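Lab meeting, action items carried over

1. Structure of the two-component assembly. Owner: GW. Status: complete.
Input record:
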Amino acid sequence: MEKEQIRPQDSEYAVEMLHITKRFPGIIANDDITLQLRKGEIHALLGENGAGKSTLMSVLFGLYQPEEGIIKINGKEVKISDPNDANDLGIGMVHQHFKLVECFTVLDNIILGVEPVGKAGILHKAEARKRVLKLSEKYGLQVNPDAKISDITVGMQQRTEILKMLYRDNDILIFDEPTAVLTPQEIEELMQIMRNLAAEGKSILFISHKLAEIMAVADRCSVLRKGKYIGTVNTKDVTMEDLSAMMVGRNVNFHVEKKPQKLGDVILKVENMTVASHMHKNNAVKNVSFEVRAGEIVCIAGIDGNGQTEFVYGLTGLEPLAGGKITLLGKDITKMPIRRRSVMGMSHIPEDRHKHGLVLDYSLEYNIVLQRYFEPQFNKNEFLRRKNIRAYADQLIEQYDIRSGQGAITSARSMSGGNQQKAIVAREIDRNPSLLVAVQPTRGLDVGAIEYIHKQIVAQRDAGKAVLLVSLEMDEVLDVSDRILVMYEGEIVGELDPKTTTPEEMGLYMAGAKRKEM
Amino acid sequence: MRKGNSILRKPAVQTLLSSLLCILLGLLVGFIALLIINPSGAVEAILDIIKNFWNYSKRATQLKNLGNTLVKTAPLLMCSLSVLFAYKVGLFNIGAAGQYVAGAGACIFCAVGLGWHWLPCMIASILAGALVGAISGLLKATRNVNEVISCIMLNWISLYLVNTLLSKVKNPTSPYTYNVAKQMVIENGASTTVAHPEALLPQLGINTLFNNNKYVGLAIPLAILLAVGIWVLLNKTRLGYELRATGLNKHAAKYCGMQDKANIVLTMAIAGGLAGIGASMLYLTGFEEWSVTQSSVPGMGFNGIAAAFLGGLHPIGTIFSSFFIQHITDGGAQLNKQVYPSEISGLISSLIIYFCAFVLFFKLTLNRRLDRKAERLQAIAQKEGGKA
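Predicted assembly:
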């Protein structure tokens, strides 16, 4: 640890958000929250989804006006009414989803909006390039200023975002879940960059719910829970367990309990599957073959955008295959329509619950029968049997603890992300599938909901079902699965055993640095 | 989310309130237009428009004119149902006008040219409208052609095809076709007509309620029945569940195995059929004949868009909004033509539609006010109140 560097502990604060309260109809998103960011420190902001982190940041950027509380920058009280004000005060942010122009070069993206323009509107790029190169050298941010964004790695895209902030002379840097899209190696690099920045006097606010990263890089950590301020601690003085208890309000069982494995018949067999890409001319999925047996959880791991989405589309029938064969329960389903696959016993928890998983403007009960409304139980002579639908929805709501404002008639849109996901999980699992395809089933959920959904998935496996899990979360992959297949650029590049592999080894496969012939 | 119990929260009440507000604003701006044209008679003129048939002093004449308004309300209601139905499935059926034209062509030709009974004529209208609608649907589903573009083009294609077709049953002494109460027969190379009352929609005795207005009949109850039917179809049936799901989120519809493409074609065919039957509801009363030289698409389909939105996109709401729009359109005919153009009622109804765009805004503002009020009350009641 390099925390012994000069970090004047008693200097004045770069940012002070004092007693911020922000209400929305029916909910207090920030309830008397105080956040104090010291100059030159790395300060983590920890909280589950819905804890109020985003709202607090939106207040700092002037997107929301708080009802109560004041904001001080460098000790002076300020009023921030829009993001431009925040920019003028030297506050910059790297968003979780980068805000870059894909077809522009790195340099173009960095100067976008603050172009050095001479007389008659002529652009002085040479000057800008010099400054960018100087900054990149000073902070160890390696980029190629002339490469197009669409051609560079996610890590370099992130460095471009950081340079954007530095180019604008921002001294207060906010990183919003910056590691979600990175490989373990890239995460390590980012941590080093953050340390360099802090050493140069920049103040960093690091928003995350990954405890290990917070412990590794942050000096202090402020915790929010359900809109309330829980406390600020020095990371030196606490353990991961302490932080997690602060975040969740109870002790969380990180480990997923599984029964000993009882392997059954082959349920799903994929042979030489190839799926075309919509983004580029190459195939997104190339020649993928594997099997999933009853009673096992096979996990497809990989970094986002390596063909997992297209693979699932091909498997579930949302996209036609360019080649290959899929066999489910001994039957060729390669050309089978979606409905027949689903009736045959394939359940699908989709990656994007708002795009595919739910009709947001339908009620919860209508969403719960989305895969079954055509069954005789739910319609007779083409008319919906609303009583049966209601009864079934109520049963699932009870059984799976789906919480919503008005029960079965709640609009799906008004439900929290976790409960929306629970509704989908309930719907898909309750159909008693032979094969459960779960794609990032815990994305964006809080620890409690993650724990719950993992239990449900494992229960399916223990009940002798085949489970195919597609996940980007390293911890999830290692905790839940029985077998790991790593996907890189549309190919399966390695099969790993979660009991013997390490995150570092997986990272090498995920980054394409290592591969086994399959 | 917690909701208050205020009656203003009810979506139906909100829709009604905002529609009334639109009407009020539309009339107000229309009144300003009248003032600009001629300030001295403006008050009288706007009242004339609002009163429509009440302008007549005799009760018998009032009823007869109310009947005329109703005769034209039925096709307007069908066009607005056509627009509404497609809209619920996420499609904008600006082609109701063309589908209406196709329906008109089919029923007039079958009645006058072929001498069919009214029922098969009506069915021919439905099929013709459905066919035109299905073409747009098919283009959308298979080639991803925007339905607005294909609908607008099909409006003109339908118009000129129908003009060509109906030239065959044209009265040689006027640009109009023969009335559907007559059947055309060719004798010695020249066309004459014989009486053919079977092609007229049955009056069912309803005409007696309107001072024996002979055009009033089956169309009006049938239109209302269909409006209710559309509501049932959308809200109570499996098909409605599928179609609305497709309209609200086509990705989710595809994900759960609904035939999203077939649904798009089916939706446009049903929408077209509704507009088509609307045409037969007007022309099979013998109220009007078709001018084969007309070079603009009849406004009925476009007014249908207006009525659908003014009715809050609810099938039952459109019954009233269709009547209202037809009412003020006919009211425009009451004006002194020397001073005011009768198009002023068209202006007012379009202004009302324009203000309909504010319906959403109005609802939003209302809800926000209610929320704030509820929050205040809650804050007083207890300090702790939020849940994630």
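2. GW to write a short summary for the group page. Key points so far: The interface with chain A takes residues 1-3, 236-239, 241-242, 244-245, 248-249, 251-258, 368, 371-372, 374-375, 385-388 of chain B (CB under 8 Å). Chain B has a mean pLDDT of 87.
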